[in-house]
Design a protein that fits this description.
Strand 10 and strand 11 form a beta hairpin. The protein starts with 7 loop residues before the first strand and ends in a 9-residue tail after the last strand. The protein has no helices and 15 strands. The chain has strands at residues 8-12, 17-22, 36-42, 50-57, 73-78, 86-94, 97-105, 124-128, 139-142, 147-151, 158-165, 174-181, 192-201, 213-219, 229-236. By secondary structure, it is mostly beta strands. The radius of gyration is 17 Å and the shape is globular. An eight-stranded antiparallel β-barrel has the order 8-9-10-11-12-13-14-15. A seven-stranded antiparallel β-sheet has the order 1-2-3-4-5-6-7, with no helix packed on it.
């Protein structure tokens, strides 16, 4: 990625799964252009300072897709012993050689420590960040069984999936399964099955008592062919409608 500051938002689960969305060059307000997602896991249960995985490009439908689009590039993260505040280093093994990216870490979500449950079953959410929702006109519904649905008027993409508590539901993390279909030709590469993780959070660190938003990291399993990843931020309809981080 080019030099500069980048916004990032991630989740490390109690059992060591790691997902990090690294946005484009507008660090003040997340820019999906040129963004990537890290998908990996901690190396060992006892050592929570190193994680290995891959980087997959996001927002790849444009005329000049980013260099990480369609591939799974090996990457490794080194985390500080004291996470917040702290700095993480991401080592990336590109075809042109190794690179190191630095991320400043801050604790955002104290709700991870609460049990998983649907905060507002039956509520509707405005979908942001995801490439198929570039016009911010996509509404996602979630029912009391964790089933989700959305349809994009601009790209045609339709999504059906589920949120299920991760592990035993002790923490505010969810396993996500999603099938996208009917996307237009420019976004046809998104058609297919995805899996990933999700959590809920307030819209800003100081918005205690506000409605929760969904943050969802998704990727297509490597065995399914070309590597694809996308990140969704879904805020309650009628809420702030934006989330700077």
């Amino acid at each position: 990625m080019p030099a500069g500051q980048f916004a990032a938002l991630g989740l490390i689960t109690a059992d060591g799964a790691v997902r990090i969305d690294i946005g484009g060059p507008d660090a003040a307000a997340h820019d999906p252009t040129g963004s990537v997602q890290f998908i990996g896991s901690l190396d060992t249960a006892s050592d929570r300072t190193h994680a290995s995985g891959v980087l997959i490009g996001q927002a790849c439908a444009g005329p000049t897709p980013g260099r990480f689009c369609g591939t799974a590039t090996p990457a490794r993260i080194t985390l500080p012993t004291v996470l917040f505040p702290g700095t993480a280093g991401i080592q990336v093994a590109t075809s042109g050689g190794g690179e190191t990216w630095a991320l400043d870490l801050y604790w955002f979500n104290d709700r991870y420590w609460t049990p998983a449950h649907l905060r507002s079953p039956g509520e509707s959410y405005d979908v942001l960040l995801a490439e198929f929702a570039a016009d911010n006109n996509v509404v996602m519904s979630v029912d009391d069984a964790g089933r989700l649905f959305f349809q994009s008027p601009s790209t045609g993409c339709t999504g059906n999936g589920t949120f299920m508590p991760h592990l035993d539901g002790q923490f505010n993390a969810y396993d996500v399964s999603l099938v996208i279909d009917s996307c237009n030709s420019a976004h046809a590469y998104l058609n297919g099955g995805f899996e990933g993780l999700a959590t809920t959070n307030v819209l800003q660190p100081w918005d205690y008592g506000r409605d929760d938003a969904w943050l969802v990291w998704l990727s297509r399993p490597a065995a399914a062919g070309v590597s694809v990843a996308l990140t969704l931020l879904a805020t309650p309809v009628g809420g702030a409608g934006a989330w700077d981080y």
